[in-house]
Request: fold
Amino acid sequence: MWWEKAVFYEIYLPSFADSNGDGIGDFNGIKERLPYLKQLGIDALWLTPFYPSPKIDNGYDVSDYCDVDRQYGTLQDLEELIQVAKKSGMHVIIDVVFNHTSTQHPWFQSALQSTEDKKRDWYIWRDRPNNWESFFGGSAWEYDEKSQQYYYHSFAKEQADLNWHNPAVKHAIFQILDFWIKKGIDGFRFDVINNLTVSQDFKDNPVDETRRQIHQNDVNQPGVLAILKEINAYIKNCNPELFTVAEISSDDLKCIEQYVGAELFDTAFNFNLGSQEKLNLNYFASQYEAMNTAAEKLPTLFFNSHDMSRSWERLADKNVDVYYLLIVLLTINHGITFLFQGEELGLGDFLAANLTDIRDIQAKNKYFELLPSDGEVRAIAAANLVNRDRSRGMLPFNIKGWIGSAKVNESEKVIMAGYKALIALRHKEGPFLPLEKIQAENDLLSYWSGDIHVILNFSEKPRQIELLEDRPWQTLWSHNGPYLAKNKIYLPERAGWIGKRN
Ligand code: NOJ
Ligand code: CA
Reply:
């Protein structure tokens, strides 16, 4: 399939490229940047939500699934973008948010009218709330004065969860999928799709010893897989080449993998690797090992997204050589590569100095939770720890922004060259087979994929190791001057080598 050795590029629309000077990224801005993406080697774009939205969660609160927010341009601008991208050989997938709608969506507005309304049962209502917590903090239930009932929202109170136990919801969603398939898109990224159904007995969730809630009854519920199979069958019946990727709100590989397979999603985001707080090679090696056991479950390879601190800070600790070696793990590896806008430039986090800088609802909630007890300085610091704005800073080629700018990297040219070279190598040698002989020792990581051998020295010390096979090697890529002598390889500090056996 076209996506197996592809490199996807996530575009967080408002922060990417602004074409009309209003400080908000837009479709025409993306169109102008297609040559830039092409020369980088990008095969496919993932567009984050561009639908009309009150933007409580910056677009993940959709009020109309079959239109675009005028801030980003017109529907025609988007159609043109899709066409131009296709002409230059790039696929386009779009983000779909079907777990919840904005409370401004006409469906929810109709449901609010009365308990007898035809759309009432499209959402989840109870006379009394249970203890379920929203993923953005606080209760997941909001009181509706008029009907004296509570509706369920697993995220913000302005994002009401759809009731997927009602088949009418599914049929409405199929029509939306149809609408976009006819516009020529090449696939979908499904937002928090394991949250789709909740347990029907509404039992309280348990809490752990630190009193943190364990989301036992509100995610990954029995029955969700059957619905997801129907959704995937619907899409693949339209066109088997359409690509589906699931966002599963978990960093547990076992949980993530159950959503991937022949009748399910083509892949899912591997947060077990992508969202790690620090670089731990032993852990990475153990995860690669585990990810290899099910060959039909092709993983994703990513270290960045619009929901987490940038890997320049988080994993590379601002070290350009470490960052360079991480590109190898993203590209010359078994799985599908997903880059996030600006990582090819080594961009750093945008950090809010005060409340007026914060746009992310999760960070705002944290700030207001802590302000009364901890005061301004601590509240801002704590908010920044969960602030998803960190990766959403405006890209540097914009003059102004709806949000502050991402931190520019002084080594951006070198980093960009690294991405280009490794993406080109991925296109030439990929797709890569499941890894073998994965080893991590003293900050040295090595693995095989078919005839390709990768050795990365993440340590501050030079290392010498014996190659397992004594044969002529073709060096495909190297960094920081590794030296090959017969069946030994000498790697200076933070050097890397990719070889192919002849
Ligand atoms: C996951 C998205 O990536 C995130 O940005 C959003 O806030 C939640 N889903 C809710 O839609
Ligand atoms: Ca604009």
Notes: The chain has three domains: 7-102+167-350+407-429, 107-152, 436-501.
